[in-house]
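Revision sheet: structure tokens.
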Amino acid sequence: MAKLLKGKPVADALTAKLSERVRGLAEEGVVPCLAIVRVGERDDDLSYERGALKRAEAVGVNVRQFVLPADCAQDELMSVIDEVNSDASIHGCLMFRPLPKSLDEAAACAALDPAKDVDCITAGSLYGVFANRPTGFPPCTAAACMELLAHYGYDLTGARVTVVGRSLVIGKPVSMMLQAANATVTMCHTRTRDLAAECAKAEILVVAAGHIGTVGADATSEGQVVVDVGINWDAEAGKLVGDVAFDEVEPKVSAITPVPGGVGSVTTAVLMKHVVEAAERTVSI
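Predicted:
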């Protein structure tokens, strides 16, 4: 039976450390503040927002919510982003995406100050991830993968890691972050030839393809550590599942993240970490 790499212990440990850092900021007269910009009432956005609010309260981070109707005009959204940028009391901004198709999402992302971009939606933050520079912040989910591996004591130096997925949200940035931690990384995707064989070579397998059942038992090997980033609704089973066929893979590998309850459970804690760090950067300027 594989070890379950649950996210809750990771998030709880991170929350405790962040609370200490928030108390340190309070001594400097600074209270970390997150702006949440939401357009419309998407169920997944609302669910994440509730989790973020709960985590912010636990850490001691203030939250300001900017909610616009789904049919808002582009200039209304840009005005909110300008307000976030110009308000020195706001240290980080989470803007839910995708935006309604009537809006220019690229323009909205580009308008945000990279210093307040705590979920890597700007080119400046992406540069920071790819160049391994402290510019902006990496995507929260990619960073959550790294936090989880570190919490459970996996040494990435020289480790053979295969990442399945090439999005700018998870696949590409987590590959860069793994390399920065001295892992030897192979990037794959759903069109990789003989994907199963490539995956089976890895010591650590990170799966972020966005498709149910991308990785089965034939793509894994004995002793492997599997980080399943996928979150999919399986209508036939009537439940949330990952990209990995858990029931097939779990008996074979040494450790695996559950879905739900794995990487996703860490993301709001990482979001708060980025807000606290953004606030700390203003103190050190």
